[in-house]
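step 4 of 6: structure.
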Amino acid sequence: MSAISCIGLCKYYQQGDAVIKALDHVSLEIEQGSFICLSGPSGSGKTTLLNTIGGLDSLDSGQISIDGERVDLLDKAALADLRLYHIGFVFQAYNLIPVLSARENVEFVMQVQGVSATDRKERSFKILREVGLEGMEDRRPAQLSGGQQQRVAVARAIVSQPKLVLADEPTANLDSKSMEILMAHFRELNRSHKVTFLIATHDQRVMAWADRHIVMEDGRVISDELQQTP
Amino acid sequence: MALPVRAMSKLAWRNLWRNYRRTVIMLLAIALGVWAMIFMTALLRGMVDDMVKQGIGALPGHVQIHALAYRDDPSVTHNMPSPDHNLLEVLNAGQVKAWSSRIKVPAMISSEYENRGVFLLGVDPEGEVALGFNPDDITEGRFLNGIDDRGIVVGRKLLQRLESRLGKRVVLMSQDPDNAIAEGGFRVVGVFKAELENREESFVYAGRAVIQAMLGIGTEVSEIAVLGQDYQTPEVLAADIRSAVSADHEVLSWLELDPYLATMMRVMNGFVLVWMVVIFLSLSFGLVNTLMMAIFERVREIGLMRALGMRPSAIVYQVLVESVMLLILGLLVGNLMAIATIIPLKDGIDISAVSQGMEMMGASSMLFPVLLWPDLLMANGVVIVLGIITSLLPAWRAARYRPVKALSRT
């Protein structure tokens, strides 16, 4: 059984008299442990696809199943639990809580999950070290550069080892070295823990890391190919 | 799911101080409102307390016993015998602080220049002092020495009206049971002052035995005034006394003797609550506005929290925690301000500039604020409860944000 099954996804927006098809009958099957890049021009539907799979946005029609459970039929509370325990998000804008430090931002999800303070501290320090932010744990977002903030957001998304990570342009503000470190980390998580990654990106270097490359345009999947990974 | 309480409190505390100025302004507004609630309530309580005590002092006593028709016609024809054995047993029991028999009849007092209608009180001076007459209120001369004292004690204002003075003789005239004139000459041995001027003009004190002899009524008395342990619950005492007297006696508590005062006391508690709610309602607009602005500025953050897995109910809880913190801070400051302004006023506020108006209401010209624990608790309770209710709307609005729309806000 596929980890994620999308059948006939449709999402429309009204803009004046025009109807924008953000998703136009998109169907996909994603196996557990996949490492997939989504690419396409701006407005092709990448972000919308990630948001609907993650339960952040509703569909106008179609079905999404994660591990056999219909995500599109879940209520708000159940969707919140799904995101909390099974999905890690990395957003286009870093979206950190400004009054919390880097470590507190990383620990946020674990706190809501009910992880003990000792475990939280250990895991947050470890993950921040792994993304190259050792020594900056107590800095607030305003005291971090754009790239550093992005790394905190990535750390937050993966610290609780979710089953699925949905990342929207995760390397947008990172230098090459940081990007390489990050992608290697993603890949390691994917291989060792079978975490499924669905990454929306314009970055060719990121696409090279993926097992599968899906191209979208005008809300449709126009290409879906497997590729060799390093 | 929600954050643990400690983490939520930390987040709420930090969020409060994101906009320092706005938070401080709202805090001050809450503190001022709380101060106004407590301070004004203390003043009102003090005023009503004073009115009740003045009223009871003027009666005097928490309970009075009369012959049945006395209150309709307080003349010498409606006397009653001195207390018998049964009544004495109740009057000397532990629930009675003091009691005294009195003659109280309408009379005319005449000096060489003027005359006035007064109430002539034939009293036992020791009993009067026990009932509440303050010997320090004697401004000239002395109080009576006993029930056989042939002197009289008059009010300062009355003496002025009579154009007389201490040591001068005056004539007191009333009626005996046969409707004949009963009169006597008396020397003014003492002058008293009262908080309420009309008391100074209305009452003349004389020895009980002397007046009984003048009126030819033997040992009969007009009223027996009884002081209990607590003015707030006189009905219990009245019921006990009623059971010890015959049916031709009327036993009334001060609540029935002075229904105006009784109503004042009963209305006071309800009025205090209404006063507090009205103040808070005027505050609540500011509170709602502050919370709405705080949430409006954090829409993206709220969307993020929802996206990360916080349930809508947890968002509501988060906003409420922030609001409660603001309220508690405001309460702390407000309570401190109130206590700090009430304590220095323990010697009273002199409002003699409006003493005539106060006297019409039965209050003295010194206002003593009275801070009661139930009032303090009520003020704090009103603020917390109504504050939480007021915060529900902004909290609900915050919880309704759709994550994807909230995240896309700039």
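step 5 of 6: annotate
 - Chain B has a mean pLDDT of 89.
 - Residues 60-257 of chain B form one domain.
step 6 of 6: archive
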